Amino acid sequence: MIYAVIAFGYQLTFATSGTLNFGQGEALMLGALVGLTLVGLGVNYWVMIPIVCIFGFAQGVLVERVGVRPAIKTRSEFGWIMATIALGIIFKNVAENIWGRDDLRFPSPLPEAPIEVLGANVLPMELLVVFGALAMMLLVEVFNRKSIYGKAFVATSNDRDAAGLMGINTGMVITFSYALSSLTAAFAGVLVAPLTLTGATMGAVLGLKAFAVAIIGGLSSGMGVVVGGLILGIAETTTGFYLSTGYKDVPGLVLLLLVLTFKPAGLFGKTAIKKV
Predict the structure, then answer these.
(1) Residue-wise pLDDT tens digits, 41-95
(2) Domain ranges of the chain
(3) What span, in angstroms and rounded, lies between the C-alpha atoms of 248 and 246?
(4) For residue 30, what pLDDT band results from cuts at 50, 70 and 90?
(5) Which whole-number Å values give the CA distances from 73 to 68, 87, 162, 220, 275, in the listed order?
(6) Residue 29 near residue 202 (C-beta atoms within 8 A)
(7) What is the arithmetic mean of pLDDT over 230-254?
(8) What's the rounded Cα separation, in Å, for the pair 50 and 46?
(9) Nearest to 193 by CA among 261, 263, 257, 132
(10) Inter-residue contact 243 to 192 (CB < 8 Å)
């Protein structure tokens, strides 16, 4: 489900601006490291989560203002790609200088003894990841459907030009989508950190796999990224169990290639018709 949460962030920015934050993995990494620092200072894990979310929100605003907005204003097709990649590299270098290059252990807020669920041994933290990820995506969906700001977000997603003509500040909506995208990534970081090692390089693989999930499910479909995350997670787990953990990355990449070949818009995505 972590893949789905990160991929959900990709979908948020693509829906409003047609752009992606290729530093999404670094947003996850920074969230995890900031969370680790706060926990090390004595902040309770549950109190730390909203603080990290605020940090992620601010980081997303920075990425949009510095890397994406100038490219959108100049209608550069590739400027935002290089800008978000460059910012991701900068964030990684900053993290290495502050926290070092060695991976760090993030203490788990829950017992580390596995519990039996439907005949399988599952760590309590793994259950928290699943329910936390679902809760985050549900909150975003409720926000979009019930709040006036969420409706502005949906309107911009449907037709940015028309939304602008109706008086919606589409620039602010795009900024908010990037902020919300980085917030979800930072939240995912503090969820997954206790299950893995925390370090400056932890976001690279997770961000790449989440991008694959977004492509498989469809960048234009929120439900698609959830299903794509489940498909990739099941494929990796099944391959690791029956074959070898060394091959667990293969099925997802093969599926990605198949989707790009036969359904480039994704399993749940809509093919856009561009008039020329």
Answers:
(1) 999 999 999 999 999 999 999 999 998 888 888 887 788 889 999 999 999 999 9
(2) 1-106+117-210
(3) 6
(4) very high
(5) 9, 18, 17, 23, 21
(6) yes
(7) 79
(8) 8
(9) 132
(10) no
